[in-house]
Amino acid sequence: MAESVHIRLADEQSAASLVEDLLARFQPQLTRLDGHWEVSLANISEENVRTLLGMLEAWLDPRGETVEVALDGKAYRMEPRRRPG
Predict the structure, then answer these.
(1) What's the pTM value of the predicted model, to 2 decimals?
(2) What is the domain class of 3-78 according to CATH?
């Protein structure tokens, strides 16, 4: 079953950095929407969703950022496993 994923970020620099990391495996689209940035991925298999979430978790950890993730219409909040320090 193909799924869509939307990742909401506060600033363009973070969004562009995430897109750069994801390009190794996916075809993300970057869009500015109502004061925030959104990285979107369409037609992602369930297996690739797990891969994507792992990549996102690895991306978040060193930055200490929190993002909102919408997966097939359901919203989630992802935080780093540990805070940088």
Answers:
(1) 0.89
(2) alpha beta
